[in-house]
Design brief:
By secondary structure, the chain is α/β, with parallel strands linked by helices. It is about 40% helix and about 25% strand. It has eleven helices and twelve strands. Helix 1 crosses helix 9, helix 1 runs parallel beside helix 11 and helix 9 runs antiparallel to helix 10. The longest helix has 17 residues. The chain is globular and about 50 Å long. The chain starts with a strand and ends with a helix. It binds 1,4-dihydronicotinamide adenine dinucleotide (NAI) and magnesium ion.
Length: about 325
Amino acid sequence: MSHEVVVIEGDGIGREVVPAAVEVLEALPVDFEFVAAEAGDETREATGEALPDATYDLAADADATLFGAAGETAADVILPLREAVDSFVNVRPAKAYPGVDALRPGTDVVFLRENTEGVYAGHEDRLSEGLSTLTRVVTSSASRELAEYACEFVTDGRGPAGDPEEGFTVAHKANVMRETDGRFREAVLAVAEERGVDADEELMDAFATKLPLDPSQYGVIVCPNLAGDVLSDLAAGLVGGLGLLPSANVGHDNALFEPVHGTAPDIAGEGVANPTAAILSAAMLVEYLGHVPEGQQVRNAVEGVLSDGPRTGDLGGSATTDEVTAAVVDRL
Ligand code: NAI
Ligand code: MG
């Protein structure tokens, strides 16, 4: 069976790293039908819209979408695209690879971030000239859905330790936000208990100290929306740079995969961007579509290249995007 994958390169280095990831997917014994679609700053200049309806509809109807990055229009593109795929969880692994100069070489964590509500639900108001407010939305249903995903993730051995016994850590601030994070905490811990999954908890501020001091204590980390955004960026800083970090926005029957980085205007067009984040995002896509061994093969090939080279400039090397991509394909 062929999988329909919508490919949105976007702007800047998205136009370089996404084709690299597609080249890697084409090297796998899996049938893909790639459908190119447009979004981002250049699309807005050409059509007046950063995310044309046609692109939204293609992503909504596809089996999965691979997205690069958009420039100034990032929020106008990525937020609706996450909605198009009905995503309720943002999966963000941060792993320090051998051969990469990482601040904390022992880091191997996966953030599972609530992707629909919290303070990003968009209820901001200007009540007067000097007063603005934000309404935080937390539902038991979204919190439970995230927790159910986390339990499956751990039980299937998809956590960093690969061991169903590893459980997960839930980070929250329920001691202060008693109503909203209280609801989140209660729902997540209740699901873990029902599913027989081991769950620890951390207050998110203390966690922001403990994680960089000793990341090896942690594996799968479940967070509300804003906390997950901030803490996973913190973890990104521990593993050696934006060029390495993939992510997945997973929905009920669809998903969108994207590197964490943006359009890197400082190096765009030079052919020197690190394709690793986009290729690892493609590996997550392959696994999501049910081809777990092939996803692991891609990961192994990437790890081999990170360890032995060639490497791009952000990792201290001088290789081009194409040279790194060819080395990954070679190993496959
Ligand atoms: P950025 O991630 O584009 O770049 C930050 C730094 O990391 C730059 O020095 C860049 O050269 C480097 N970098 C990033 N990815 C790299 C890669 N694959 N290989 C080598 N070096 C890499 O973030 P920045 O500069 O804050 O944003 C630039 C533009 O990207 C902005 O217009 C922003 O709105 C957009 N953006 C879009 C995102 C998205 O579409 N999801 C996410 C983040 C930013
Ligand atoms: Mg962010």
